[in-house]
Amino acid sequence: MHITFAFLFATTAAVISCNAAVCASAPPASSTQYWITQPVDHFGGAGGATWQQQYLVNATFYQPGGPIYVSTPGESPVNARYIDKSHFTSLAQRTNGLLVTIEHRYFGASNPMPDLSGASLRFLTIENALADFAAFIRVAKRTPSSVFPIPVVANARVIFGGGSYSGNVAAWMRAKYPDLVLGAWASSAIVYGRLQNYQFDLSFGRHLAQLGCAQRVSQAVSEVDTILLSKNSTQLANMQAKFGIPALSASDSAGLLAAIITIYSMTPVTMVGDQLGSGVCSFFGDTTIKATDAYAAAVRSTIQQAGLTQQALIQIGDSSLGIDNYELGQVNRVWYYMSCTWFGNWQIAPPRDTMLKGYRSQLVNMAYFQTNCPKKFGSGIPVPVDVAAYNRKWFSNLNGVSNVFYTGGSLDIWRDTTVTTSYGTILPPARGSLAVLIDGATHAQDLGADYPSDLGSVRRARSLGDALVKQWLA
After folding, report:
1. Is the Cα torsion angle 114, 116, 118, 123 positive or negative in sign?
2. Which first-to-last residue range defines the signal peptide (predicted)?
3. Which of 11, 49, 110, 474 is least surrounded by CB atoms within 10 angstroms?
4. What is the mean pLDDT of residues 24-35?
């Protein structure tokens, strides 16, 4: 009963700030910012305090009776590309739909609290995040004129979509609010939590193996580990200079190298190429060059191609920066808090007792990550996070949920946290739901913008999803 009243409060508290002159004219640009007032805590824990949540609208294709396609960037700031340059844009055009992308609390400009201290982050819960989106959808259905810049028919059907963590949100919204969300497109949704996510590293290795350089990359990582584990400051400094990375501790250097070497694993594989091949494996083809030298060349090239300054590398690699900084806009700190309190998914090297080949340093282990949790967010943060409880609550609630389209790439680095794992589909089929493994694809490729160079497998997956959405709408 308390939860029901809290949701009612969220609905009545939702207020839109919209310039009357703009709202009365033709659809404004998709980059136009809109704001909705939300409770800091939908469950009454913040004394009725409120905050402003940002969203963007693309009303170009809308015709009366068309659906509303809702998305969230998840752990990224809101951007017009989510409604202008995604597969949902094409789908909206064909179905006379309206597109909305809503910023997730604590990311971008949507901040319920004035800082990112541990005390402020206590309102970053899955329940609150989902209630934010539910509150918006309720208003959009009941009084659309208060949130949209053009006339929209009341009680429009809503399809929620997202990739990666925002794919989780899409699936959870369908599971928790089926009265508000007709269906969900969950691309590469990382719905299954793992405390020790060394499967992330193994997925990376499978992609390298397909490109023919897995053995050499693993060898190079092992050779660099000899230096990192030696505690020899001179050798460490020489190695850092060779790789073009800043003078960090051995463990932070290991973490930085792991982040750099996997950058291209998230880029789409297309008919014209695979950037992991050109960005990493191409450096390991000449076997007359030492594996470590090839590794260093690949890292230096990636730093240059990505335009990463030394200060940017410090921010990526230093496990304190971006975590100790309480100022708003510290994405790393917010995501770290979610890992500490929600789903774990610590991206570590395969533990030695698994006897599995790894592609990141042994220094990138559980101690490297989770010991920071109580240090950064307060002594009340449990270590380790109870991933089993998370899965019981947030993975199990997806069992039997209808009208969800799950996709995952066979080369997705997050594959073993998705529904389409390397061990098979881990959710039984439900009415109106479908899980598709996209051969040769990486992370959330199907929700990207449609291009002629897209893999045939990606196009086929989109066709299946489009047909399913039309079935839901019918």
Report:
1. positive
2. 1-20
3. 474
4. 86
